[in-house]
Amino acid sequence: MQKSQCPLCQETFEIEAEWIGQQAQCPFCQQVITIPPPSQLITHPGTISGTTNITIEENRPQKSTASFVLGIIGCIVWLIPLIGFPVTIVGLILGIRRKYTVGITLNVIGLSLTLVNSAVGAVLGAQGKLF
Predict the structure, then answer these.
(1) Is residue 65 scored above 80 in pLDDT?
(2) Are strands 47-48 and 42-44 parallel, antiparallel or unpaired?
(3) What's this model's pTM, rounded to 2 decimal places?
(4) Are 110 and 71 within 8 A, CB to CB?
């Protein structure tokens, strides 16, 4: 096992020697990177001293899309709390993990609407005015 450093988040991790130069997902920031040799030092995120040919593939948009789509679905299905709660909570978690503000915003709106709908339904049900 050898130690290497992610060129994006600069966290140090252990790798097998055969992984050097190959693409893998960083165990910390979850970005797909080309594993740099352990002897190279990082000067700033995204580059390695002495070379600039590291391949970094952003996979954030694909995972953020799930948060966005769940946020839209949550804003539509808020009328049915049994569906609205799980959809918006999962979307919110995905948005927070990827720091995707649009997904977070949509899911907070959907969750808020679902909570209000549940509260109004509980009050009307307690008063016998629901049906």
Answers:
(1) yes
(2) antiparallel
(3) 0.51
(4) yes
Taking only the tens place, the pLDDT of each residue in 2-39 is: 777 888 888 887 878 787 788 888 888 888 888 877 66
Q: How far does CA 76 lie from the centroid of its chain?
A: 22
List the beta strands (DSSP E) in 16-100. Answer: 23-25, 32-34, 42-44, 47-48, 56-57
Within 8 A by CB and 6+ apart from 68, the residues are 95, 100, 102, 103, 106
Q: Which amino acid is at 10?
A: Q
CA atoms within 13 A on the CB side of 9: 12
Query: Domain map of the chain by residue range?
Result: 2-57, 60-127
Q: CA angle 26-33-18, nearest 5°?
A: 85
Amino acid at 85: F
d(CA 47, CA 121) in angstroms, rounded, equals 55
Distance CA 113, CA 37 (A): 51
